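User: Can you predict the 3D structure for this chain?
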Amino acid sequence: LSWWLAGLTSAADWVGSNVAWFPPAVPTQDLFSYLEASRARARAAVAEAGLLPAAVRTGRLFDFRLRPAQELCATLELPEGPMIAVLEDETGSGKTEAALILAQRMLLAGKGQGIFFALPTMATADAMFERARELMGRLFERPSLALAHGRAALSDAFRELVGAQRNGEDAVTCAPWLADGRRKVLLAQVGIGTIDQALLGVLPTRFGVLRQWGLASKILVIDEVHEMGDPYMAKELEALLTFHAAHGGSAILMTATLPLEQRSALLRSFVRGGSLEPRDLQEELEPAYPALTLVREDRAVSHAVPPLPSPRGPLQVERLPGGEEARELLLAAAREGAACLWVRNAVDDAIAAFAALQEAGAEVELLHARFALCDRKRLEAGVRRRFGKEGAGRAGRILVATQVVESSLDLDFDVMVSDLAPMAALVQRAGRLWRHMDRRPASARPLAHPVLYVVSPDPAEVADARWLHRVLDRGAYVYPLADQWRTAKVLFEAGRISLPEDLRPLIQAVHGEELAAVPEALLSAEIESEGHALAARIRGAQNVVKLKEGYRRGGGGNNDTLYPTRLGIVQKTLVLARADDRGRLQPWAEGEGTVAWMESEVQAAAHRLAELKLPSQDEAAIRAVTDEWPLWKKNACLLCPVAADGAICEGLSYEQNTGLLLR
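Assistant: Here is the predicted structure, written as structure tokens:
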């Protein structure tokens, strides 16, 4: 209760200290009259702040014929009180619609007053916000809808919504007060954001209890939960579910590739928060897939979802021994009119493949995370127009991309090549192969059947620890080597993937507890990887606040940067600029002001930038811009002028269609 009360107090203080709603008054009134007047102001302030919950609609959300998982969410009896549900189904099966159907029933049953959608990345959050703008008016009567992540100010869709006067039954809006800061956004009736915004509530950070309190009245919907399974984030997520259950909240978790052990840990964390006591959770030994799992009292029950036969049929899996073979295959397929994708693990490898395909005369595009935000938005829009559900002009073109296409973009390709990656990542990537069969049936494809080509060495021939590095270069360092080898062994032995029935055993074979022994040459790499994982789990357990300590002993008011929501390679932000005809630095992005400068930012690994002689921040032209920056931005960002030929400094350049290139 102390955590919840502290959050309520913080929210009340933020509203009550707003002088626009509660102006200073000369103390001539008696206290009773002042109290009555303040109560009237409070009612108006809470309404203007966008904190009053809108009514939940009872009508049907969707007019199409429901798929099996959606039908199950619409009819299955719900347990009493706060609840957690785990929806497991393959990519593209309509899990989001199923979760919304279930969330509406939970809201009508009094299990919450709003929804917070937590997603793994800003790109997936932006994509969900676009969908929510169209759907939330069907679920609520004029709800407040807000976007919560560090780049929300760059979303045109969100900016258009803030303060807008909208009419009609399906109207949604966002009060300016809610949009003023990503912490307040969690107080909106419907919030869309990255999982980080919720995880900060269980770290000893400033306003953590405000986040907890905002979430307490929500159905917490976590999408792509398998992408939050690294050891550090897993501990945070378990703590979040424990706190959410303790506050009386309910949750829906969505996933395509969640290992059973991770699913069990998340369910147990929620049950622990609901009872505040250790309890055994009875689980089925061989749960179905696809499935909807609910916890009833002390038992997790998986309800099988009748699988629909995949219109694309089984995926063949073929190994390509190297990058040269991948390039030749893609060039040949493009000549036959296929829309092609090559997913690379590392940005440098993606840039190299893009250049090689260009040199060979292919019509090729490039997409990765090392573009300035303005260029990435432009390129993503072009990729959607060409390779999306309604894409046009796709025949004979090739996209080279990194992991950015795994979940945030709804794309459809005829031919796919992927660097070897852990099974969960490969399954996500394969979800972009022959995706929209209703738009492009097999008869309209340039190939007879879908094939997932994987660039990989032979898992049966492991001479030394550099087994993978000789083939993938930088891409071999991105994932644990043991996971890579097990994926290759299982996948190439199977030779095909039949969805959805093969998903569970494939995921468990690589990400479960009972795993095949790696070759002797890879044992040291596996031990080192396990050591890093253990250290990350311990750090996560140490960082999260402890529910039973109460707010007075367990809370904290530290800066967000001291307690990261994610571990990984430290990134440095470069703010790109170009000189005008008078020598003054302007944002790389078109336009002026804060948004243009934010859209000019690009990130790269700090340890690689440290090797370069970056532009001095004491130069007069740079100081003319950065003198107006707040101290935190001066510490976090470097302003980098880009010359006409793309050069930034020796070893570093930028080009709008290639991105940041580190030599």
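The mean pLDDT is 92. The first helix runs from residue 2 to 16.
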